[in-house]
Amino acid sequence: MRTHPAPRSVARRAGVVVPIRSFTGGKQRLAPVLDPDRLEALGTELAERARAAAGGLPVVVVSSAPEVRRWAARRDVTLLTDPGTLDAAAAAGLAWCEEAGLERAVVVHADLPLLAPGSLLRFGADGDRPVAAIVPSHRDDGTPVLALPVRAAPFPFRYGPGSFHRHRQALAARGLGVRVVRDPTFRFDLDLADDLHAVGLHTVGLHAVGRR
Known about the structure:
By secondary structure, the chain is of the alpha/beta class. The protein has a single domain, classed as Spore Coat Polysaccharide Biosynthesis Protein SpsA, Chain A, CATH 3.90.550. Helices cover about 35% and strands about 15% of the residues. It has a 7-stranded mixed sheet, sandwiched between helices. Helix 2 (about 35-55) links the parallel strand 1 (about 15-20) and strand 2 (about 60). The model is unreliable at about 1-5 and about 200-210 (pLDDT under 50).
């Protein structure tokens, strides 16, 4: 999977935060159709896609799962311990970006099969501007990508069903402009068995999907 280095000006300004609960236990609604080995293979490949999509931006992975930590240790990423919830993991990543002197955090979920190498660079280009970019899932429910300036920290992340609408309200309450991005590259997340079939992954042939 080829990646393209970020332009230096963007690389100085943004970091990519990837919370990963587990490669094997994070997508239990897929467990009826994927055995543990295939779940781990899928989770690993999706994490690789998220890392490559950063396109040279610094990446911080938030996880305490042993298999994720082993994977991250072999990659050029920073690893943080999972505080216990997705909201807290995103907040920890945002705080890391702030401490690293970055201006923007791009929080992306590791369940997006259509991500292309370097595709997240667009979310880092706003730097410290008082604007956030938010991607609703293909069901207009979840928040697969949320990019916001570190000046918004601490931010009240509210993942779970309906998170897109809660996040949009919270961003506006912080006085941030909100740009909604409906590009299917970032919207389509794997949550249900039907999602696997929709992109031809019922046999976990992820390596053949979404290559550009």
